[in-house]
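Entry 14. Two folds queued back to back today. First construct below, sequence then structure tokens.
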Amino acid sequence: MLVYYSSISVQAKTIPLHPLKMGLLQNFLGQRGNSKGEMSFTDHIEDLRWHIIRSLIVIVIVSIFVFLKIEWIFDKVILGPAKNDFISYKWFCQLAKVLHIDALCLGAIQLKFQNTTVAGQFTMSLSASLYIGFILSFPYVLWEFWKFMRPALKPTEVKYARGIVFWCSLLFFSGVLFAYYILAPYTINFFGSYQLSPEFQNIITIDNYYDTMSDLIMGLGIVFELPVVVYFLSRIGILTPKIMREKRRYAFIILMIVAEVITPPDWFSWILVFIPLYILYEISVNISTRAANEKIKRDLTKS
């Protein structure tokens, strides 16, 4: 018999769950229980725990291999956009000649970095190794998550979700590469060359540089998952193409704000981010239409 809980007990205090959340949880656990046999709530938690453990093991293993080459990775990859010979700068200058837009060709930058703590470089190497380890392990982590979710889905839903790990990974890495090769060079170049006065020198801490790079890369990787999120929200009826079309003007403003937040304060970098975000939104509208049509056909088949 499948056991459900309508509240969580923590240190002798009972925390009631929201009815909607409880209904979704019961439906999810019920579907998994039907697919995998009789399972209690703790059985589901134990199953999830092993998916998480396997994911962490893979992340740690990949991170160890990254750590063994962390000096080369930091010099050639992480610090790449801060160097004048970075390949993106060559692409931008070639594009500037073709389009006759001189602003595309970025000027030379000379950045100086400093470490302000005793163990700063060592902790940075550990942090960067885990961060890169997670990015490289993303498809496997997603696959483990999908293995946990799959038993709760119906055969038709599994069919529609075919290839989800591939598409989510493709979108994630597309966002990561876009941030690294396009957005990061403009961001680093802008802030690295900006001066209030010639008396000030831009001597940047490695922590600040690393945080800027990691925020840009992870942020774009997550944002690029928009089409997948829209697809599943449309499949369960929370989001419809009609809503997305009617609220397009509001989405336009929100995307402008998002692009402004994750880019430096110059118009060209803002455009570089806003255009792909808006394209993703329009693609998501079409995806929502397809998902909604599939839902209608499914409902008609049931009736």
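Second construct, same run, same settings:
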Amino acid sequence: MSVEIFFAGSGAASPFSRNELPGFIIRYKGSLYIFDCGEGFQKKFSRFKLGFNKPMYLFISHLHGDHYLGIRPFLQTLSLSQRSLPVFIYGPPGLSEYIFSYILKDKLGFRVYIKEFWEEKIIRINNDVRISFVRAVHTSTAFSFIWTQIKRKRFDVKKAEALGIPPGPLRRKLVRGETIVLNNRVIKPDDVLLDNLKPIKVVYSGDTMPNYRLASKARDADILIHESTYSTEDYLKAYDTLHSTAKDAAQIAKKTKTSLLVLFHYSNRYENIRILEQEAKKYFSRVILSKPGLKITISGGNPRLFVIEELF
């Protein structure tokens, strides 16, 4: 099954950025996984027509305003659009204080569940997706995220029939990963379950200096969405503020052997962000710039197929 990524914004710091503030959505099996939510996010979300009442999980990388101050208007928009399903929000310490102090006073028409993380963690959602929180190197408590499909093995009916396993409880046990005994013979799940293709993996750096701890966990990513706040010409500014240059992003992509590098979170100082793309391509060839309205679809086949569209 394919995975779709929709970019609402890809700029940094200022809400007046021509690239909008950071935020993107991953759609998979009808659920929406949202990463960061800058001001104005709700406008672009509405334009994608993804639906206001879908299962929704929101991940905030850190508590700098350009990454989370869009939560309140976004949730208000969902409520005004008659949302009834709960929203699950994950992020660093301090997030719940913001939610309780401001957002929950708005009397939303749905429940909001908040989970704060102080340290690295791996969570599963609906046994469909695994999301790893990796500590980023930034000026506040910050996380990078690794979104990975949980691929289920396919039951091989022909093998089961050859082994004499009748339809019913015994087959269901094998699908659950349990070993069975049939006619004094031990049958293991691997005897009747087929390996699936490599799961799709999407990595988001959040705001960070080059982080080789993230690189070690993100090997063979299909897509690496990496901040490229600065050009190499401004590397002193990047390191002073604990951000990355486009060159840094490319070198991380090369180290992780990612299939496609998507540059993200550009400083407003660059009138022409193509210079960041050009800089990155000196070190890694498969690079594109994110922008509001961009959609990337990743097929789950082998080889992978990437379809890139500009929706608006």
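Quick look at the second one. Residues 154-193 form one domain. Residues 246-256 form the longest helix (11 residues).
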